[in-house]
Amino acid sequence: MDHGQLRMVADKFHWVFSEPLLNACGTDRKFCRRQRVITPLRLGLALTATCASQRVETSADCHGGFHALCGTTVTSNAFSNQVATPRCADFARTMTERLVSDMTLQVLGCKKGHACAAFHHIVMQDGSSCAIHDGVREVFPGRCKAVQPAAVALQTTMDVLCAAPTPVVLTPDTASEQAFVPEPTALRDSVLMADRGAVDVHSLRRVQAEGGFLLIRANAGMNPQVLEACREDGQRWHSLRHKALQRIHATLPNRQRVARVVRWHVEGQPLCRRLLLSWNPRTKSFCSFLTNVPPQRDPLEVICRAYTWRWQVALLLKEWTSYANRHAFDTAKPALVEGLMWAAIAAAALTRFVAHMTQLLTQVPLSTRKVAMCAIHVLGDVIEALKRGDVVELYTALEAAITSLACHAQRAHPERDRPRGRMQLGLEPYFEHDDGIEFAEAA
Q: What letter does residue 182 receive in the DSSP assignment?
């Protein structure tokens, strides 16, 4: 373990959870103008630690965590009145956004010569909804009103090289995903992978004009004109040229991937893009992908495989649900629901940073799921040191946590990731920098 790097990590922890900075943040958000017992630092640490270590359903659970950490005599009602205010939710959001942006590390790199090495960022966008108490349906309406009258959605953008979210937006479930897709100017020399409905046809032209690339799931009902069709073995199908997509869909083979150049008329001008089809034997249906990546850059098989990286976003959202309290809280107070959601995201971001930090310092591939499962056993001393502001004690606690995680949270089958997992297209752990890896810039 590099103790110089460990000191840098300890300094980062101490800076992110700095008492003057967090207290100033609470004052700016008008959450705590007069800092008495429930200070922004104490509350931020207590909420994060509680969400990372136990199931939280009401403000009483947070009150118990606050009392255990700070040893105060604040009553449950006084605590609930304080954390159920919109200003507290605003403070929790600001604290979480700062934690997510400042505690992100690059953990993967790209081998020279592989397809993904040409991109500065490999960005994945996804959203996930969560049902909440029916009493907040007016503030957080759900799309399925009969089943989930109230629901919130988390819109997340994730860089695969960092394996962590960059921006996270909490919205009502009825909000459209298109509003939270990265701006075209942010995708220069990068590729965005998104689900159907997240990007419209109009965005394709704007992204390419800014030098960016897209790989998105195509809607099943789209019906552009087919200009060219080519099988995976290189054979062209001249009989399919200049026909509507839906007319030739039934004639496509299910043993080879097919690439087609299709055309729409967007804003009075033709727009040509590649539409890739891959047969899924499990669902017995075609998966369609729309992209502007030129065929000379990446083979058809590589592009279709690369889209499976979006599963990393689903795993991240599942981790938030299973180990960081992203679930329905038993309260009808909208501000409390929002504040607890942000605290849950802060807890998840903290445990994932600890996993990535341990992997970089010990050069051992770690499972973020295992780290999230055992966070309760390693974060206690770290939180205590942060509460006291003791840098020496924080250094000792981090060293003990890293040693424990490196031993007990390793990936079960790291070699299996190369032929079947996320390593199959040239991604490697960042610490293998002496093995001819070309690194893209981290977000």
A: P
Q: Quick one: pLDDT at residue 421? A: 65
CB atoms within 10 A of CB 377: 12
Within a domain: 79: yes
CB atoms within 10 A of CB 411: 18
Q: What is the DSSP string of 45-79?
A: HHHHHHHHHS---SHHHHHHHHHHHH-----HHHH
Per the structure, how many domains does the chain have? 1
pLDDT digits (tens, 9 = 90+) for 160-193: 888 888 888 899 988 888 888 888 888 888 888 8
What distance in Å separates the CA atoms of residue 102 and residue 231, rounded to the nearest whole number?
46
Predicted pLDDT at 141: 92
Domain span at residue 87 reads 3-105+330-408
CA atoms within 13 A on the CB side of 239: 7
In a domain, 80, yes or no: yes
Q: Is residue 111 part of a domain?
A: no
- Asked if the structure places residue 414 within a domain, the reply is no
Residue 437 has a pLDDT of 40
All residues at 6 or more sequence positions from 247 whose CB lies less than 8 Å from its CB, including other chains: none
